[in-house]
Design brief:
Elements: E1 7-13, E2 46-50, H1 58-63, E3 65-67, E4 87-91, E5 95-99, E6 105-109, E7 115-119, E8 150-157, E9 161-167, H2 173-180, E10 198-204, E11 207-213, H3 228-235, E12 238-246, H4 252-266, E13 275-280, H5 287-298, E14 303-305, H6 314-325
Parallel strand pairs: 1-3, 2-4, 9-11, 9-12, 12-13, 13-14
Antiparallel strand pairs: 1-8, 2-7, 5-6, 5-8, 10-11
Helix pairs in contact: 4-5
Length: about 325
């Protein structure tokens, strides 16, 4: 499996146009025919294509340089040179293309199947056939092709999901994602098992719900503590949020407050999105009382108690996630 990469520096170049041809018609009974040099082919272009099967920028990190083919030169008998092949740069949905030097955003590619012609190839040169005239019957020159262009770019990935699972380390996000979807994130009983986001698809009847397991958010994440800023930027591309609170913690209300505070510090608009509060690990002793404490701390918001291990509350959760993704929770 490719490692998750959410930022890559690349160089892209369109192709040069092919040179026009200097050529004269020469046949058995026409030893001094007129000019018939053909045009050069256009250089290939650089296109960005959004592929829904891609989840990471790992391929860009491995290749880094993308060059379109140069146009081919023209030939005699007005033969047009072949156009250069385009180069396609495949990106996952949610990719931001920026100038490397200034950081200026050039394009937000957020839709599957979206394509963007970024750099057009150089135009092919005209052959000497174009330059004939009554006073210039044997032109000895043709145009060179126009050069292509190159740019250095930074591509950043912001995940796109219907619901983002946010919580402190070891709150059970990866376990829940594995129980609800076909995703198989790494799971272990210690903090920061998840070092990069994971995506899973929850099927609800005829519809599908994309869930994103955002790595653990700790206090100070909005200030860059740990890998907080890299983690939090992925929350921006989720339509709704599910807060996961470990009911094994002695103060679950305090855990919720930390999450709420860090998201608000990073982007206050995040707290205006539809959200659901989940008390996880309901199978633990004493979890029922801590779930009530969490409900009091939530101040009237919807709170569910669940256990991905025992299955408690999971059916109700599936229904709630469906409502949440449409703004109904």
């Amino acid at each position: 499996m490719d490692r998750f990469v959410d930022e890559a520096l690349i160089e892209v170049s369109s192709g040069d146009g092919g040179a026009g041809s200097v050529h004269f018609r020469r046949e058995k009974f026409i030893p001094k025919g007129g000019p018939d040099g053909g045009d050069g082919g256009d250089g290939g272009s650089v296109l960005f294509i959004v592929r829904p099967n891609l989840k990471s920028l790992s391929r860009l990190a491995m290749q880094r340089v993308f060059r379109a083919e140069n146009g081919h030169p023209g030939g005699g008998q007005r033969k047009h040179g072949r156009n250069g092949r385009d180069v396609e740069v495949a990106l996952p949905p949610g990719s931001l293309v920026k100038e490397a030097e200034s950081g200026r955003l050039l394009r937000d590619l957020d839709a599957s199947g979206q394509s963007w012609l970024f750099l057009k190839g150089g135009r092919g040169g005209k052959g000497n056939w174009h330059f004939r005239s009554p006073t210039r019957q044997a032109p000895l020159y043709a145009q060179k092709g126009l050069p292509g262009s190159s740019r250095r770019l930074v591509v950043e990935l912001n995940l796109i999901a219907d619901v983002g699972l946010v919580g402190q380390p070891n709150a059970g996000k990866s376990t829940l994602l594995s129980a609800l979807t076909n995703a198989r994130p790494r799971i272990a009983p210690y903090p920061f098992t998840t070092r990069s986001p994971h995506i899973g698809v929850l099927r609800l009847g005829d519809s599908e719900l994309v869930l994103a397991d955002i790595p653990g958010i700790i206090e100070g994440a909005s200030l860059g503590v740990g890998l907080g800023l890299r983690f939090l930027k992925h929350v921006n591309r989720t339509r709704a949020l599910a807060f996961l609170i470990d009911l094994g913690e002695p103060e679950p209300g305090g855990c919720f407050e930390v999450l709420r505070r860090e998201l608000e510090a990073y982007d206050p608009d995040l707290l205006a999105r539809p959200r659901l509060l989940l008390g996880t690990k309901l199978d633990l002793a004493g979890s029922g009382e801590r779930l009530q404490e969490l409900r009091r701390a939530a101040g009237g918001g919807r709170v569910l108690g669940i256990s991905a291990w025992s299955g408690q509350g999971m059916e109700e959760l599936r229904e709630a996630l469906g409502e949440l993704s449409t703004g109904g929770a």
